[in-house]
Amino acid sequence: MEEKKKFQITRGMLILTILVVLILIVIIMIIIKSVQNSKPKYTAADFKNLENRMVEESYIYLSQNNITLTTEQVTIKLSSLLEKNGGGIVESKVTKICAGYVIAQKLEKENYTAYLNCGKNYKTPGYISNDNKVTTHKVTSAKDKVAPVITINGLTEMNVAFASEYKDQGAVAIDNKDGNITSKIITEGKVDTLTSGMYEIVYRVSDKAGNKARVKRKVIVLPGVTTIPVIVTTTGITNRPITTRTNQPTRTTTRKITVTTTTKVTTPPRITILGDNPTILNVGQSYFDGGFSATDVTGKNINSSVSVNSSVNTAVAGTYYVTYTVKDAWQNQTSARRTVIVKSTYIPVTGFTLTPNSVELEVGNTKVIFASITPSNATNKSISWGSSNEAVASVSNGTITARARGKAVITASAADGKTATIVVNVK
Question: pLDDT tens digits, residue range 79-88?
């Protein structure tokens, strides 16, 4: 019997097999690319996140450029908020296809609204385009009926010495809508220190809505040195008959009143405040008193008799006063007051994230977690760390150490109530 021929791969079969494999690879690549193309490049969350970041960075932009919000709208372009232009927003695939801006305004409170135009992908309702030069949006609000508040610098009632120099310290005006309108204050009245009596200085101001405010300061110019008569003897003029010899006429003599005078000083001493008044500080800044100069009516220096009463607390924003009081040798008293304004420069933490958001470690290994605080110039950047299970994973200053198999949650806490967590799986 003849032996069966063994199976052999011919050259044609090999070529055919290679062609089939290549065709299958091409088909698979086409399917993968089709699936990838069907996935959206951008999600609604991408655009919402950008809008939120624009609002966060706008607050910092205004602070860095010393812009105070009023009822007038301020427009901040997205391009100004990008990191390459000094902002805090890192360029991404979304920023590259979007144009936008933020409208900032102070009505009852500060208000920030972000607007984006990302072509066919996304557009914020209300977005207005004017050849990429956005000006303002009209905002309708209830008519302002609240009058400005005028605060007098120094004392509202004060005494000044006769023939001394009177220098009015002015006032400050703040409006709930227009902000600081001190420059619009109209001052009326004049003090003549050469004429004793009472004078009034009146401060008037109006806001843009026509609401008016009016306050006044009372200034009393004291009399100068006076002479007070004092009767030393009280014998009046009398006629006393004097007896003479008989048949002689009666003679009358006159006793005179003796009167002397004494001088009493009634002009009060004078205090001159040295340095800035008002003095303006930032929270946390040290306060150093600019000093004073006190003299009595004769020009004698009586600084050593001055008492100083201060309420300044630079740890808390607000308006404080330093009062200087002095008495001269005749017990005449006068006071002067310095205004100290402590301004807040605190920039709060608005965003806080950890990278990565989950970690897998083997026992004994470590991993460094990176924390990101927004804005980058926040006043308080301190972070505290904690673990839900120290036996599984401990953390110190962002470095996680795997202790035993299991899971633990690492929590990081930043200022202003911001927290972030990651899950650690130890194998």
Answer: 999 988 888 8
